[in-house]
Amino acid sequence: MSLLSTLAERIQEVETLITAACERSGRSKDEIHVVAVTKYVSVDTVRDVVNHHIVHLGENRWQNAKPKWEALQQLPEEEQPVWHYIGSLQTNKVKDVIGKFTYIHSLDRLSLAEAIAERADKLGITVPCFVQVNVSGEESKQGLMPEALPDFLHMLRQYPSIKPIGLMTMAPFEAEAEETRPVFRSLRHLRDRINESGLLAEPLTELSMGMSNDFTVAIEEGATWVRLGTILVGKEEA
């Protein structure tokens, strides 16, 4: 897809691709939520994204998200987007992020859970979190090893202001999207095994997986949230 196409054209093309992926896998399109990743675009473009009725916005660094978040605070409450923090979150940035970002997609260590819970308790809120799992085993990827997940989820029970809702992973970048399928399938199987174990009082229902180059495969393998940047909102030169 050309990055020179208009935002409206890209939105329509993404919708078409999602619909086709759902048809191939026998899923309902209502199960799929799109997070528009806006880290490579300007405040004006983010406003345009929201004006096109895209509700969920994703950023991976607070310093880049801050001007966009502040600009959109001027919108009426009913027009406010829902913010997703999708990058690795440093504990010293938790105070900036929690309370502004509804969802955290990158919970991967106990020290971060403790910091999130402390901030959430002060604000009197509960934070829905995805636990990030390094399914591929790549050293460059953040996240828990799959075998560490049950113990980590057990330890999260000491933080009632954190609500684990699902798992997140990042697949290796592959020239052929089909090569990512085993990673996405493994995350789904891991979630299902956790749910079958009865470890949690409430089952994990969500899977945050799939980006611009591989999201259709992720949908076919069970993704409920896909994180789309260049294919959806484009990329602007710095």
Could you explain how this protein is built, in words?
This protein has 238 residues and is of the alpha/beta class. It has a single domain (7-233), classed as Alanine racemase (TIM Barrel, Alpha-Beta Barrel), CATH 3.20.20. The chain is 39% helix and 16% strand. The protein has helices at 7-25, 43-51, 62-72, 94-97, 110-123, 149-156, 181-197, 215-220, 230-233; strands at residues 33-37, 56-59, 82-85, 103-107, 127-132, 162-168, 206-208, 225-228.
Strand content: 15-25%
CATH topology (level 3) name: TIM Barrel
CATH superfamily: Alanine racemase
Count of individual beta strands: 8
How does the overall form come out from the CA principal axes?
A: globular
Task: Return the average pLDDT rounded to an integer.
Answer: 94
Could you describe the largest sheet, including whether it forms a barrel?
A: 8 strands, parallel
